[in-house]
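To the wet lab folks,

You asked to see what we're planning to order before we commit. Fair enough. Below is the target structure as tokens, and below that is the sequence we designed to fit it. If anything looks off to you, flag it before the synthesis order goes out.
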């Protein structure tokens, strides 16, 4: 959000955005878990950074004294680096990908990990020597065994984390270590883990406080067990109502197709326009790659723009 902009739309949208950020902080103070539903252009990352700054400024003595950590889980290493740059070097806030976070939470339980990877056929190494497994490690996300060390797939780490979350003692230690867990782009989180967070902690009103930031409509990893929307009565839903990216006409169109998350454009002096490209009449081959399945081929789409 750029303070250089002025005008009625921007001033109103900025004021509303500030109110939402204040509401998030009040919810944070209450101890309730919450979900910030933020459509594209609503300043989700800005709000997340403000919350991180507030936690760093106001919770340092509480968490540091107890040797606890606040975790901010985000999807990419690049995003982790961006968050880390905003933190003090000795900050109790740990930015992390879900894989790194899960591994750091379970890696000390070597006896349990060794038992699982040596008895469960789902974790058999693809290659390696015949030495007895004496250690389980996670580095490059490639599963193999070497010199008695079994290395894990990326997904192995998440599955093992889920297995340990089924253990009540592990959950107690985990909850004491991480009193607050913030998750960026929550909609693409690994569903089995989110389900356990809800069932074991949120539904019971115990354990860590969770703050989910994202947009269920922007889920892009359905094929990789992404969770999509996270719903529970114990999760306070906070909706961001300003749009700092799109012109008023576009925002109005978004409101028409998504009335449950109405937004106000922050753009002044330009209404914008919406163009609808139809494709039902196209009978040729459609795209089959990854998240573009069923869409028009690029050359056909270009010709219709």
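Sequence we intend to order:
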């Amino acid at each position: 959000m750029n303070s250089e902009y002025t005008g009625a739309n921007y001033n109103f949208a900025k004021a509303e955005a500030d109110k939402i950020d204040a509401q998030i902080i009040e919810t944070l103070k209450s101890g309730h878990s919450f979900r910030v539903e933020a459509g594209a252009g609503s300043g989700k990352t800005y709000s997340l950074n403000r919350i991180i700054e507030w936690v760093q400024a106001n919770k340092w003595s509480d968490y540091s004294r107890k040797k606890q950590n606040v975790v901010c889980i985000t999807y990419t290493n690049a995003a982790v680096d961006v968050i880390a740059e905003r933190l003090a070097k000795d900050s109790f806030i740990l930015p992390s990908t879900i894989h790194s976070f899960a591994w750091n939470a379970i890696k000390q339980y070597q006896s349990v990990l060794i038992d699982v990877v040596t008895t469960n056929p789902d974790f058999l190494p693809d290659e390696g020597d015949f030495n007895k497994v004496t250690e389980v490690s996670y580095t490059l996300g490639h599963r193999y065994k070497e010199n008695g060390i079994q290395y894990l797939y990326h997904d192995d780490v998440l599955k093992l984390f889920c297995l340990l979350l089924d253990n009540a003692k592990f959950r107690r230690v985990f909850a004491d270590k991480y009193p607050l867990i913030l998750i960026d782009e929550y909609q693409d989180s690994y569903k089995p883990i989110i389900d356990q967070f809800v069932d074991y902690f949120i539904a019971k009103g115990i354990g860590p406080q969770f703050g989910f930031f994202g947009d269920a409509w922007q889920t892009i990893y359905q094929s990789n067990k992404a969770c999509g929307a996270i719903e529970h009565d114990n999760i306070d839903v906070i909706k961001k109502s300003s749009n700092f990216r799109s012109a008023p006409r576009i925002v109005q169109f978004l409101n028409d197709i998504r009335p449950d998350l109405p937004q106000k454009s922050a753009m002044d002096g330009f209404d914008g326009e919406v163009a609808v490209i139809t494709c039902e009449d196209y009978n040729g081959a459609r795209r089959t790659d990854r998240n573009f399945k069923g869409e028009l081929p690029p050359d056909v789409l270009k010709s219709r723009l």
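Structural context that might help your review: The two ends are 30 Å apart (CA to CA). The chain has a mean pLDDT of 92.

Thanks,
Computational group
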